[in-house]
Structure formats: structure tokens, C-alpha cells
Amino acid sequence: MAEKKNTKVVTGACIASYVHTAEPESYNNSEPAYSIQLVINKSDTKTVSAIKEAIKNAYDNGAQTLGNADLKRIKIPLRDGDEERSDDPVYKGRYFLNAKTKTKPEVVDRNGQAIIDEARDFYSGCICRASINFYAYNTSGNKGIGVGLNNVQKLADGTPLGGRTRAADDFNDDTTGLDLGGYDDIMTESNTSSGGSGSEDEDWLS
Predict the structure, then answer these.
(1) pTM (2 decimals)?
(2) Where would a tag sit more exposed on the chain, N or C end, judged by fewer CB atoms within 10 A?
(3) pLDDT confidence bin for 194, thresholds 50/70/90
(4) Who's near 96: CB < 8 A, 6+ residues apart?
């Protein structure tokens, strides 16, 4: 039996998009899965070459699964952002691919430590790298090379995609002397009465 060729790649720095690594998502009634889209600079020839080689290896490993279909006639996961997303500047000069897994991937920071509040701190727009693997599939005659997601490392914060903003950006001004709009007396009263029974609130609500 022929030895299986390597299909695993650890990417260089990418833009994380469509991030669903904290909780699995279901699309079109499919089984829920954890997923991410990796947006990769075309200038990162090391990563691009490794991905292309892994795709070819997955094709060779899965020849029987694919029914010996021609590589040019099956679905390939590495897609050209300049061609498919020409109206979005995020994809200019970049490739992209989608990776998913049914098992929750580990998401760590630059020091290899688990990101505790993943839903908040790892979002679409972050700069990351990922460990991924490629495999052949043939589902109801739909043949191609898929991408499995192993683990993700966040490298840096980035501009949030999809309209999301960070609290640090929304509230980055100095609050010293901020006009509280006439509520400062309420604040003072609340502070001095903290730890009370709460009966005044209950009377007000009744």
C-alpha cells in the first residue's frame, strides 16, 4: 500500500473571516460545524505553495474516492479573491479558503495560551495563522478537495469585518469631566446607599 502524502499545512499570517470557532454553526440544515475563512496574501508564496502541494497530495491520496477524476474538473478550495470578490478590498491581491471541523479547534494567542473569552477576542478581522489539512471527498457525485480545521493562533487584532466594532475603539476618549447629563446626583446617591435592602427600588416598581 502506497504511503500517504502529507496534506497538513500551518499557514503564515492570514486575515480571519467568517469566524465561527467559539460555537458551531449550521448552514442549510447541515450538521453544525466550527469554521473559519482564511484570507491569504498572494505574496505569501511559502503558504500558497504549501497549500497547492497539499491539495495535490490530497488528490493523489484520494484518487479512489474521486473515481480518478481529473484534478481540473473537481472543486478546489483555494479561491482567487481578485476574481470572486473583486468588489471587496479585503480580498484584493489575496486568495481565500474555508476550513471547518466538527470538533472544537483550540484557539490560542501569540504565546500559545488559550484565549479565554474567544467569542469576544477572536473575531472576523483578526490576524491569525491556522493548522489545516486537506482531504478528498465525493458526496452524491460532488467531487472535490475539502479543508479540515485543526487549530488557530491569533497573532494580532485587526479591523473588524462585517460592521462589528470593538469597545476599545468605540470608547477610546478620555471620560474625565464627561457631562453625565444630570445623573451625577443619582450616581452619588446610589454609591452612598450601596449594599442596602433595595426596598426603595421595590416600592418604586410597585
Answers:
(1) 0.79
(2) N
(3) very low
(4) 17, 37, 38, 39, 40, 79, 81, 85
